[in-house]
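Researcher: Re-running this chain for the archive, since the previous output was lost when a drive failed. Same request as before.
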Amino acid sequence: MRRLAVILALVGCGSHDPASPDAPAGIDGPAPDAPPGDPTAFGDLMPHVVGSTKVIAAPKVVAISWANDPNRTDYETFFTQYAASTAWAAQANEYGIGVLTIAAPGRLAVNSPGTLTEPQLISTVLTPNLTGATPAWGAPDASTIYEVAIPQAMSFDDGTGAKCCTDYLGYHYDTTIAGVDVAFAVNCACTGGGLTVLQNLTETANHETVEAATDPLGDGWAQTDDDHFAWTYVTGGEVSDLCEYADTASEPMPAGMTYAIQRSWSNAAAHASLDPCVPAGTASYFQAIPETPDTVVVPSFGTNVTTRATKIAKGATGTLTLRVYANPASAGPFTVTVDDWNGIIAGTKFLTITQPTGTFNAGDTVSVPITVASTDPGLGNKAEAYQVTTTPATGPATYYYGLIGQ
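Model: Regenerated structure tokens:
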């Protein structure tokens, strides 16, 4: 997550980059591919992260902690293990990022304060240790990610009133110190989610390290292609954000590591109709993917984006058509449900949905009647977001996001 707009959980943001040469063909080019006849071939219908070469190609990490942080040793060891793991290469290499170097840790000699804000973190922790005649952590370096562990005992505020563990699990951002624009990450030690505090901390540190390297200043790999803007709206759109809601997001014991990480998005895996969250998750992958015959213009981080949708007027009832895909095709049968996204996160539904019944296999078409009860102000009252859940007889479900347009 990049700190621009804070939403509960690890939700990220980035600048809209419709001109990116890496963007798949879509609204800004040829029409999207029609659903393929092969029900195992659906990679071109999956979202792709778009961006630029504005990454940290050779990143370094300084792991920063206070003297009384009980997770200090584990936090430092985690980064060492992660840098040497196959997980780092799987998550970073395809975005033009090489070896992760772990610098000497930033061990603060004092105990953590009871409260701290982001401006105070920059002025009292980062700046003093990166400036002066002999800065403790060396001179500020645009290739280094300064990763701050926020202990449970501290109340941390990002400067907007949003707090660690209440509004987010962590985020990355950048600031200018001695004329150098440097990336930093805030990693919170939180309870919940069925994980230990340490597992939450290392999953967050992994999440933010990947995103700070791939999108250090908000103009790197920052969001999905325009056709799939719904995924950016729901998750935040950066490479780790896109996998955080997946049932297989958590990897408690990745190869060569004893600390938990969170899987992140691979364009290559998505294009190949495989589980897009890496390191590799389940052997099979499947989705019920909506047909999106229409376009709609919605607000996106201060500008507008033209994206794909299924149009149903406010007050009217229409049909959302889904097609089931699976790799391999024998992975089913599946149940399919569609839910109003705002109802999931905020309790207020804009859409009234009649759920499909029975089970479906790869190649099947699913028709879902939807009535638009209201419109979403977060999308300029131009669209409403929904989540498609595809669930096998056993094992984790998958999720797909789309828009009903006005």
